[in-house]
Amino acid sequence: MEVLTNDQHPLHGMERSYILPIMDDKPMDYPWTWPVLLQRIISMLHSEFAMTDIGSLNYFLGIFAQRTASGMFFSQSKFVEEILERALSSVLFSILLLRDQIYDPREPHFNALKRILRYVSGIVDYGLQLHVSSTAQLTAYTDADWAGCPVTRSSTSGYCVFLGDNLLSWFAKRQVTLSRFSAEAEYCGIANVVAETAWIRNLLRELHTSLFTSTLVYCDNVSAVYMSANPVQHQRTKHIEIDIHFVRDFVAKGQVRVLHVPSRL
């Protein structure tokens, strides 16, 4: 939704507010909006829809939202406490590992479950802090645990994506195909995070907030970094040719730069 200022002269620019409405009598929140613009938007919505303004968002879908001086802080402390009461866990990847043993549980699996619960109990007050930031740099970090599963020797890859100082997206999952080399596992992770950042860039463009700098993707595998820019196709990498060309297209367009970062700083 775009709302013009009272004085619509081009020199005065345009105020723009983005709203994500939640239907079925759920709350709508309007963070970081100027008060005058906020009231104007609420009045416009009231004129079109039957709705109730219940004020600022505090708790919704198991997530606490707290405004701070630097932005907003989101946490799931109440949700985690409920999980501990039911002796379950929201640590998805670890639970997926234990789920594979649900029909033949052994003592090591029970010990692993207790370890997960101890971990969750120790992070009850942890949350996600979003800062008001003027930086518009999209930065991603990716890593892979090559052949880390002792049973299937599958690799696990994950990534996290930052816009400025704010964490936007994160992901960790076991790869569906076996990797014969560590660089292959790492490169599959690079391809996944490049796809995610491409979606984020498209979303920001639709919101009239286009990024004009390349996305920085950091990986700790030198071979994978080299493969992202080297146009020569080696015999040992032909079986991941689609991922290679996918990433190289973004690199060639200048939208992505794949850089090396040490495993230990």
Automatic annotation (TrEMBL):
CDD domains documented for this protein: RNase_HI_RT_Ty1
SUPFAM superfamilies from the UniProt entry: DNA/RNA polymerases (SSF56672)
Official protein name in the record: Ribonuclease H-like domain-containing protein
Species classification: Eukaryota, Viridiplantae, Streptophyta, Embryophyta, Tracheophyta
